[in-house]
Amino acid sequence: MNNIFFNSIDWPSVEKTEHKGITGIAYWQTLQFDKIRMRMVEYSANYLADHWCQKGHIVHCLEGSFISELKNGEKFTLAKGMSYIVSDDLSSHRSMSENGVKLLIIDGDFLKSS
């Protein structure tokens, strides 16, 4: 069980790390709480992830829009105010964004498939 005491998060003070895609760059601000990881993620314009991800996530779009592509060819466009959720190892996916996007992403052991 995760026990997280009350925290207020000042995102501008959380260090940004840079992760290059096939094209574009993703900027991550990451907080780790025991078995839960919380990230504020921004994709630059023309971003395409450099890998197919099999990790589970809860993803909420804060600004802009992006496409989540599944390895089977399906594509889902998510815009501001929309979310998706997937468990580990159930749907290989990758993200792309034409004009950039800002996301809140939460993942961790609670999304392991059974």
TrEMBL record:
InterPro entries, per the entry: DHCW_cupin, RmlC_Cupin_sf
SUPFAM superfamilies recorded: RmlC-like cupins
Source domain of life: Bacteria
Protein name: DHCW motif cupin fold protein
Organism of this sequence: Flavobacterium pallidum
